[in-house]
Amino acid sequence: LALLGAVYFGRWQVFAWVAVADGMAQFSTALIQRAVGRHRPRVHTLIAEPHSYSFPSGHTASSFACAVVLVSFAPRLRVPLYLLAALIGLSRAYVGVHYPLDVLGGALWGIVVGTVILYLEDARPVFPRRSAAGATGLRRRAAGRRRSRRARRAG
Predict the structure, then answer these.
(1) Which helix (H) or strand (E) holds 126?
(2) With contact defined as beta carbons under 8 Å apart, do 40 and 53 qualify?
(3) To 5 degrees, how large is the angle CA 141–CA 150–CA 143?
(4) What is the C-alpha separation between 92 and 134, in angstroms, rounded?
(5) What is the pLDDT at residue 147?
(6) Which of 87, 81, 83, 82 is nearest to 103 (CA)?
């Protein structure tokens, strides 16, 4: 989704920050899983049982981290993006590889990771491009883009 958005909007930095959010979520959940050491449910799974630990859900954390970053760029897609992330999390419990608490923990951790990524993105200096008002960050750029569309409609 991030790649499609980057191509459609011509904003490759969005794809880069989503990739960073995904990588950071996957890496950090792997560390947390090793530290917690919670075993997976002992049920008949619908997919091959992963060999890693269960808490928190890495798929859910990654989905929510990416959704947080994408929503900051495209706020109108807030509901479908968060719904998709929630469905990915629920699917992990449905197929039998996570407990519901694993999914909830993954969602919360993903939101934390996504928020940290947005903070890092807002804090970094942007040398080649600055908006007319001098604002940086995906959220400020998206807000400026929305205002200019409204201005075009009014004018």
Answers:
(1) none
(2) yes
(3) 20
(4) 43
(5) 52
(6) 87
Give the pLDDT score at 124.
56
What DSSP element (H or E) covers 67? Answer: helix 58-73
pLDDT average per 10 residues of sequence, the chain (155 residues):
70 83 92 81 65 78 93 88 92 81 91 91 55 51 53 56
User: Which residue type sits at 130?
Assistant: R
Tokens of 98: 């996570």
Which residue, 76, 77, 54, is CA-closest to 146? 76
Quote the tokens at residue 32.
């947390």
Handedness of CA 100, 102, 105, 110 (dihedral sign): negative
How many Cβ atoms sit within 10 Å of the Cβ of residue 108?
14
pTM: 0.71
- Cβ atoms of residues 21 and 68 within 8 Å: yes
- 30 near 42, Cβ under 8 Å? no
Report the alpha-carbon distance of residue 54 to residue 63 in Å, rounded. Answer: 16
